[in-house]
Design brief:
Strand content: 15-25%
CATH architecture of the largest domain: Beta Barrel
Number of strands: 20
Helix content: 25-40%
Distance between the termini: 54 Å
Largest sheet: 10 strands, antiparallel
Number of domains: 3
CATH class of the largest domain: Mainly Beta
Shape: globular
Structural class: alpha+beta
CATH topology of the largest domain: Catalase HpII,  Chain A, domain 1
């Protein structure tokens, strides 16, 4: 670079250290942690010019890629109600079980760019657009029920800290770096969410096998005007299952589109993903009956205290026709509601109600993004809005204002009793103030409950995740602060981490919060073989009777047998019949299958067997089901024999093999080979 160009660049460099925090117009700020609210627990006020400047600048930072949730995929489907919810809400699509409501769902990772891998450790987006007869309703969820922050004014700060560091633009799609953990230790409200992100929930096996949560507390209002607090849950019919960390890293290299392709291929095969919709319902009069604030987005409502009522099912049954037109241009917004659904004073939700529209204005080129086909409602829309970028509607009336007499005052409003939307009339009082309610200030109790609720294997995975993440942090002081902070949750957990990363054991006292919520552990999820991909490695001369028994058993259990061979040339069985492989040992990998079965004939060469041994070893160390024929049993390491989830197949134990596959993982296995 020449000197003149260097001088031009130097004038734009800014050192923000030791400076007073100001707005973009130079106004010194006394507070940057809390948005302006009507009372400690009241709604965020529109006059908060600092919040608007900060969130607007953040929303417009990148085009055209989404700032967050950039990498994702989308599918179509339908939602069917099990029973009427008329006692709680007047929302039309929640009244009649005979009505099917079209939906579009976008699954995504949060932190990475569009080119990042699917299997990174991250939160997953789970956004659902219902095309109802009262307009579009968006339930914008994540696969974790809490979030890192309590107030939307801090969202730009969190994402800046989470994204690649600005001096080097690394690491990609990863929280294992200094700025992320520096944010965490200086914003301890994030403790609960970090426990989720360090858990197996951050490594879903499939979009089809993860939960979705609305995160926020919303309101349902029935025809009588009675309000009920509500939280939303999507429960996968296949259960909640995860990858292991070593697998995720290998899959990122072998097939970075692993989760995208998984859901697309399932739909192509007719294995339509299904999710049941559950709700937690809380009468308004019970708002203050708990040891946490029900409006705090860093807290869950434990299912054992407030049960989840299953009210319907969503079936995803159609892939998109054009990825850009549908997945990239779909615009979600938690403010897209229908009569009978309203908001609460959750300060994170309040900020999102502004931010999402603002983001779409820059991403999709102006105010008419609602006219893009994927975003259009299935019912007509009429209003006096006109013009703007990419306007599609051709309005023929002279009138573009309300009220009017030239067009008989149309389009006109209708009263709430006839279906017009009216906000819930909540009484609001309080001084204009930038503060946080004291009821939001317990950051560790539910984080401790989450850890207490994990199985021993899940706890160990959390510890290993902390070790990996913090070993990537260069600043020793940040490492120590993290250990001290999370020592408040569990001292033993962070003592093990401290020993690994070379800092002192935690100074803080462990939380005495001993509550357990069994619903939080994936060990208690549904376990079955449905749609699991089982690789069957064969070589010429393999026993056809054995093969047919296994394939029949797998198919009956709704698992997916996939033939793997040395090449894509036909493989002959013991009767001389040809079988066409789907994969070769080179074109696939054990991490891309949910289990491996080895059926070798009498014509396998040494090189082939060496490759098969790699498949066997990787399957074993990742705790997956493993089965071999007698002819292949010599390829097993002697330490594998007799261990859980390992089968040497004969005619009497094929069902045991199916039972092993249904378990997904066999954590009691000794993996030291």
């Amino acid at each position: 670079m020449d000197n003149k160009k260097q001088e031009q660049l130097e004038q734009f460099k800014v050192d923000d250290s030791d400076k007073v925090l100001t707005t973009n117009h130079g106004l010194p700020l006394s507070e940057d942690e809390f948005s302006l609210k009507a009372g400690e627990r009241g709604p965020t006020l529109m006059e908060d010019f600092h919040f608007r400047e900060k969130i607007t600048h953040f929303d417009h930072e990148r085009i055209p890629e989404r700032v967050v949730h950039a990498r994702g995929t989308g599918v179509h489907g339908e939602f069917t109600l099990y029973e009427s919810m008329a006692n709680y809400t007047k929302a039309g699509f929640l009244q009649d079980p005979n009505v099917k409501t079209p939906v579009f769902v976008r699954f995504s990772t949060v932190a990475g760019f569009r080119g990042s891998a699917d299997t990174v450790r991250d939160v997953r987006g789970f956004a659902v657009k219902f095309y109802t007869q009262e307009g579009n309703y968006d339930l914008v969820s994540n696969n974790m029920p809490v979030f890192f922050i309590q107030d939307a004014i801090k969202f730009p700060d969190f994402i800046h800290a989470h994204k690649p560091e600005p001096d080097t633009e690394v690491p990609q799609a990863s929280s294992a770096h200094d700025t992320f953990w520096d944010f965490i230790v200086n914003n301890q409200e994030s403790a609960h969410m970090v426990m989720w992100v360090m858990s197996d929930r951050a490594l879903p096996r499939s979009f089809r096998m993860m939960e979705g949560f609305g995160v926020h507390t919303f309101r349902w209002i029935n025809k009588e005007g009675k309000a009920t607090f509500v939280k939303f849950h999507w429960k996968p019919v296949l259960g909640v299952h995860s990858l292991v960390w070593d697998e995720t890293q290998k899959i990122a290299g072998k097939d970075p589109d692993f989760n995208r392709k998984d859901i697309q291929s399932a739909i192509d095969c007719g294995d339509y993903p299904e999710f049941e919709l559950g709700v937690q319902l809380l009468p308004e009069e019970d708002e203050f009956k708990f040891d946490f604030d029900v409006l705090d987005p860093t807290k869950i409502w434990p299912e054992e205290d407030i049960p989840v009522k299953i009210i319907g099912k969503m079936t995803l049954n159609k892939n998109v026709d054009n990825f850009f037109a549908e997945v990239e241009q779909v615009a979600f917004h938690p403010g897209n509601v229908v009569p009978g659904i309203d908001f609460t004073n959750d300060p994170l939700l309040q900020g999102r109600l502004f931010s999402y529209t603002d983001t779409q204005l820059i991403r999709l080129g102006g105010p008419n993004f609602h006219e893009i086909p994927i975003n259009r409602p299935v019912v007509p829309f009429h209003n006096n809005q006109r013009d703007g970028y990419h306007r599609m509607t051709i309005n023929t009336s002279k009138v573009s204002y309300h009220a009017n007499s030239m067009a008989n005052n149309t389009p006109k409003t209708i009263p709430e009793s006839e279906g017009g939307y009216a906000h819930y009339q909540e009484t609001v009082h309080g001084s204009k103030i930038r503060e946080r309610s004291d009821s939001f200030k317990d950051h560790f109790s539910q984080a401790a409950m989450f850890y207490n609720s994990m199985s021993e294997v899940e706890k160990q995975h959390i510890i290993e995740a902390f070790k990996f993440e913090l070993a990537k942090v260069k600043c020793m002081d940040i490492r120590q602060q993290v250990v001290d902070m999370f020592g408040s949750i569990n001292t033993d957990m962070m003592t093990q981490v401290a020993q690994f990363i070379g800092v002192n054991p935690p100074k803080t006292q462990q939380s005495v919060y001993e509550k357990v919520s069994p619903a939080l552990s994936q060990e208690n999820t549904v376990k079955k073989a449905d749609t699991l991909k089982i690789g069957i490695i064969v070589s010429n001369g393999f026993d056809v009777n054995e093969y047919e028994n296994i394939v029949t058993a797998l198919t009956t259990a709704k698992a997916k047998p996939e033939i793997i061979a040395q090449s894509l040339s036909p493989v002959q069985d013991s009767n001389g019949n040809n079988h066409i492989p789907i994969y070769t040992l080179l074109s696939t990998d054990p991490v891309l299958h949910d289990g491996i079965i080895v059926l070798l004939g009498d014509q396998g060469c040494d090189t082939f067997q060496a490759d098969v041994k790699r498949y066997i070893n990787e399957t074993f160390i990742h705790y997956k089901p493993l089965a071999v024929s007698n002819s292949a049993s010599s390829l097993l390491n002697p330490k594998m024999k007799g261990q859980t989830g390992v089968t040497i197949i004969d005619n009497t134990n094929v069902q045991k093999m199916i039972d092993d596959i249904s378990m997904h993982r066999h954590w009691k296995r000794e993996v030291a080979l």
